[in-house]
């Protein structure tokens, strides 16, 4: 990348190839443990045929918890930094938390609307797609849903710092 200008970079030049993924049959407890262990806030969801069929984020899990905690009589408030809007929010959370929802399967909460690019997509287009979709990560995959990598907003910071 040293001799390449930022304008010449494509998705394959900056994507992270070592990705932690999760299965649709894994539980929310499993997904959150993987996110915590690997210091990531989102995981591609892969089916048994190695196709990317979804994405689950910490925000998805918290949103699910918030939606369902309203039914619980024993709820309190929790502070959560919402990356999508860039500020702290208070959200109701049941006292049960993961005890109550930890066994819910990833496929029940994951997003199926994937924002993706090809490996040869210019970095400028990748950034525009992230802005248009108001997302912090884009999957790099082909039309057969084969996943090659992931690009996060942090990758843009890294590219800029290294240029």
Structural class: alpha+beta
Element pattern in H and E: HHEEHEEHEHEEH
Oligomer: single chain
Largest sheet: 3 strands, mixed
CATH topology: CBS-domain
The span between the termini is 9 Å
Radius of gyration: 17 Å
Total number of helices: 6
Uncertain spans:
none
- Write down the CATH class: Alpha Beta
Summarize the amount of helix as a percent range.
25-40%
The CATH superfamily is CBS-domain
E-strand count: 7
Overall mean pLDDT stands at 84
CATH architecture: Roll
Strand content: 15-25%
How many independent structural domains? Answer: 1
Spell out the key features of this protein.
163 residues, alpha+beta, CBS-domain, three-stranded mixed sheet, two-stranded antiparallel sheet, globular
Could you give the topology of this structure?
Layout (H helix, E strand, L loop, with lengths): L10 H4 L13 H11 L3 E5 L5 E6 H12 L5 E8 L4 E8 L3 H4 L14 E2 L5 H11 L3 E5 L5 E6 H10 L1
Parallel strand pairs: 5-6
Antiparallel strand pairs: 1-2, 3-4, 6-7
């Amino acid at each position: 990348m040293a001799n390449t200008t930022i304008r010449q970079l494509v998705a394959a030049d900056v994507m992270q190839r070592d990705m932690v993924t999760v299965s649709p049959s894994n539980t929310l407890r499993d997904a959150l443990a993987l996110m915590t262990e690997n210091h990531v806030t989102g995981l591609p969801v892969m089916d048994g045929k190695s196709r990317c069929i979804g994405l689950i984020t910490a925000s998805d899990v918290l949103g699910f918890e918030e939606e369902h905690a309203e039914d619980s009589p024993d709820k309190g408030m929790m502070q959560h930094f919402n990356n999508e809007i860039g500020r702290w929010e208070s959200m109701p959370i049941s006292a049960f938390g993961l005890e109550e929802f930890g066994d819910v399967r990833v496929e029940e909460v994951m997003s199926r609307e994937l924002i993706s690019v090809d490996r040869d997509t210019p970095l400028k287009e990748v950034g525009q797609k992230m802005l248009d979709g108001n997302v912090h990560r884009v999957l790099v995959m082909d039309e057969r849903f084969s996943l090659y990598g992931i690009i996060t907003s942090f990758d843009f910071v890294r590219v800029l710092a290294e240029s």
